[in-house]
């Protein structure tokens, strides 16, 4: 857990970016207002986490999941955020699925490349092995012809 209360605050850079994205251009926010928003956001996150943790504990789990967070939001009477939260969750899941598919495709491509290289080296070994005995047989035949002559 956090050693100091300040450790529980969200990073100032993140809060500043969120504020800038939420407000129209040209609107300035004082340092005190940013600090107040940061503290309020931190308290909100801690409260939502605590409520979500209660749902996980009731289900005898130690890991919070998206369902726990959604139930916590409903319990905290933030129903108007439920739909945007669900939409953001779907976008996140699709992004993760896409990343997983790309990673899996890269792994398969790498395996194919290794298999192709292994096949080529086997073919080369077989070709090398076949040429040796054929050359020896040809030399033996030539020597036998010379002996007969």
From TrEMBL:
Positions with biased composition (Acidic residues)? 124-149
According to the UniProt entry, the coiled-coil residues are none
UniProt keywords, alphabetically: Acetylation, Coiled coil, DNA-binding, Nucleus, Phosphoprotein
Gene Ontology cellular-component annotations? CHRAC; epsilon DNA polymerase complex
GO annotation, biological process = DNA damage response; heterochromatin formation; leading strand elongation
The answer on whether this UniProt entry bears the keyword Transmembrane helix reads: no
The record ties this protein, via InterPro entries, to:
CBFA_NFYB_domain, DNA_Pol-Epsilon_Subunit, Histone-fold
Domain named Transcription factor CBF/NF-Y/archaeal histone: residues: 9-73
Where in the sequence does UniProt note compositional bias of the Basic and acidic residues kind? 92-123
Q: Locate the region Disordered.
A: 92-149
Q: Does the keyword field hold rRNA-binding? A: no
Q: Name one GO molecular function term.
A: chromatin DNA binding
Compartments reported by the entry = Nucleus
Q: Gene3D superfamilies annotated for this entry?
A: Histone, subunit A (1.10.20.10)
Q: What does the subunit section of this Swiss-Prot or TrEMBL entry state?
A: Component of the DNA polymerase epsilon complex consisting of four subunits: the catalytic subunit POLE and the accessory subunits POLE2, POLE3 and POLE4. Interaction with POLE4 is a prerequisite for further binding with POLE and POLE2. Heterodimer with CHRAC1; binds to DNA. Component of the CHRAC ISWI chromatin remodeling complex at least composed of SMARCA5/SNF2H, BAZ1A/ACF1, CHRAC1 and POLE3; the complex preferentially binds DNA through the CHRAC1-POLE3 heterodimer and possesses ATP-dependent nucleosome-remodeling activity.
Function text: Accessory component of the DNA polymerase epsilon complex. Participates in DNA repair and in chromosomal DNA replication. Forms a complex with CHRAC1 and binds naked DNA, which is then incorporated into chromatin, aided by the nucleosome-remodeling activity of ISWI/SNF2H and ACF1. Does not enhance nucleosome sliding activity of the ACF-5 ISWI chromatin remodeling complex.
- Mind telling me what this protein is named? DNA polymerase epsilon subunit 3
């Amino acid at each position: 857990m956090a050693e100091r209360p300040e450790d529980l605050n969200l990073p100032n850079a993140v809060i500043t970016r969120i504020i800038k994205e939420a407000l129209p251009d040209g609107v300035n926010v004082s340092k005190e207002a940013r600090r107040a928003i940061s503290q309020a956001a931190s308290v909100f996150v801690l409260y939502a986490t605590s409520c979500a943790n209660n749902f996980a504990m009731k289900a005898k789990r130690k890991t919070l999941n998206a369902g726990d967070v959604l139930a916590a939001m409903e319990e905290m009477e933030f129903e108007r955020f439920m739909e945007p939260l669900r939409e953001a969750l779907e976008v996140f899941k699709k992004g993760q699925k896409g990343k997983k598919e790309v990673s899996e495709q890269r792994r398969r491509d790498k395996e194919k490349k290794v298999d192709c290289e292994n096949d080529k080296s086997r073919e080369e070994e077989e070709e090398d092995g076949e040429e040796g005995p054929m050359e020896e047989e040809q030399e033996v035949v030539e020597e036998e012809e010379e002996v007969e002559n």
